[in-house]
């Protein structure tokens, strides 16, 4: 007798499970996690108090429309509330965008390598991923992405800065790209790391979305704002895209604690800027030290660095782990190391120096 099992959608065959960055070792003498592009700082001033207060009402469902947070975001970014949609982290909103635009037979274009969730959410929707290789400089190849557009293209992700390389596309090239994408194809500017950008030629997606109905900007509270554990992100898009996001949202996905913490974080702008400044300074120190050791480091505008190690990627990551610092390996390609606390960065640099001598 053959055992019957529930029938699952064939679209899921071959879909990888999302791999989170490894946690820091529990037992070593030192243990730092530089594998998930998290913020090493604790919540911004005032945030924890608001979150604890909010925890007092967890017997109730949260405000499903995130009214207070939406009002705060609308004010902060000078956008209409009707153009805003929140979700369970920006990855949740990204998934809603794919669900809203793309199903079987449709194509979703993105650079590769880029954020690991793009292929997963595309395939889960039943759509076909179209991966366009980064240039030799590890940057989005916007011309090749344009050339990849077909009648079936529904959505294009542009990850700026790109995860895991930290590289950026600049205003002139991005504007020229957007001018050439058909008006019925949605372009999602994933700006998860925008707060860390210091290159004045990198555009703020919100300036680009305003007169372009097919552009959507994705932002998150997980990185610079340091709320990765609370799962809250948002999109800014014109109707009907924003309206579609409200339809594809998981009801009550953003908890009351997350909403209150996000509002308090937005109100702590000075402390946010100070922490971001310190991390950007650390980034410069790490990049300079790596270059001094002889590494080629792509120019990063995010809170991480990328080393293209090819076949040595897994060995490098293992050496880091042995030393008490966990980075993110992409076997056969490279490693991504988050800019963390100074001691963690120092440890990472020590491993990099020793490894460099072996190469
Ligand atoms: C480019 C990019 N977009 C989106 C996300 C998702 O972040 P979250 O869902 O925590 O907002 C990440 C997280 O690593 C990312 O690197």
From TrEMBL:
Top-rank taxon, per record: Bacteria
Cofactor(s) required, per the database record: pyridoxal 5'-phosphate
Chain spans, region Disordered: 1-22
Keywords: Aminotransferase, Pyridoxal phosphate, Transferase
Presence of the UniProt keyword Transferase in the record: yes
One Pfam family linked to the record: Aminotran_1_2
CDD domains: AAT_like
Class of this enzyme: transferase
Record PTM N6-(pyridoxal phosphate)lysine, positions in chain: 223
Catalytic activity: an aromatic L-alpha-amino acid + 2-oxoglutarate = an aromatic oxo-acid + L-glutamate
EC number(s) recorded for this UniProt protein: 2.6.1.57
Aminotransferase class I/classII large domain segment(s): 33-339
Family per record: Belongs to the class-II pyridoxal-phosphate-dependent aminotransferase family.
Subunit structure: Homodimer.
Protein function: Aminotransferase that catalyzes the conversion of aromatic amino acids and 2-oxoglutarate into corresponding aromatic oxo acids and L-glutamate.
Listed name of the protein: Aromatic amino acid aminotransferase
Taxonomic source organism: Streptomyces blastmyceticus
């Amino acid at each position: 007798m053959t055992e019957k099992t529930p029938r699952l959608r064939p679209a899921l065959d071959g879909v990888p499970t999302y791999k989170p960055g490894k946690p820091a070792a529990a037992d070593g003498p030192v243990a730092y996690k530089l594998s998930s592009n998290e913020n090493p700082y604790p919540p911004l001033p005032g945030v924890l108090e608001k979150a604890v207060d909010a925890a007092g009402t967890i017997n109730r469902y949260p405000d499903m429309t995130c009214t207070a947070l939406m009002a705060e975001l609308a004010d902060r970014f000078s956008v209409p509330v009707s153009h805003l949609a929140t979700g369970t982290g920006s990855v949740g909103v990204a998934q809603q965008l794919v669900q809203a635009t793309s199903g079987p037979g449709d194509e979703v274009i993105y650079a590769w390598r880029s954020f690991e969730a793009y292929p997963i959410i595309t395939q889960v929707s039943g759509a076909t991923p179209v991966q366009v290789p980064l240039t030799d400089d590890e940057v989005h190849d916007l011309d090749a992405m344009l050339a990849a557009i077909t009648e079936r293209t529904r959505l294009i992700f542009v990850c700026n800065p790109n995860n895991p390389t930290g590289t950026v596309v600049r205003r002139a090239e991005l504007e020229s790209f957007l001018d050439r994408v058909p008006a019925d194809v949605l372009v999602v500017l994933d700006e998860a790391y925008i707060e860390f950008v210091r290159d004045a030629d990198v555009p703020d997606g919100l300036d680009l979305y305003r007169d372009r109905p097919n552009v959507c900007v994705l932002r998150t509270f997980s990185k610079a704002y340091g709320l990765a554990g609370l799962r809250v992100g948002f999109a800014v898009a014109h109707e009907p895209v924003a309206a579609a996001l409200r339809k594809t949202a998981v009801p009550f996905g953003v908890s009351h604690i997350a909403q209150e913490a996000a509002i308090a974080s937005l109100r702590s702008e000075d402390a946010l800027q100070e922490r971001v400044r310190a991390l950007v300074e650390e980034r410069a120190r790490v990049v300079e030290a790596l270059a001094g050791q002889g590494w080629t480091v792509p120019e990063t505008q995010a809170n991480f660095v990328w080393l293209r190690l090819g076949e040595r990627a897994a060995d490098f990551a293992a050496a880091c782990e042995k030393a008490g610092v966990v980075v993110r390996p992409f076997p056969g390609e490279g490693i991504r190391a988050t800019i963390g606390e100074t001691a963690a960065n120092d440890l990472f640099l020590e491993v990099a120096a020793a490894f460099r001598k072996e190469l």
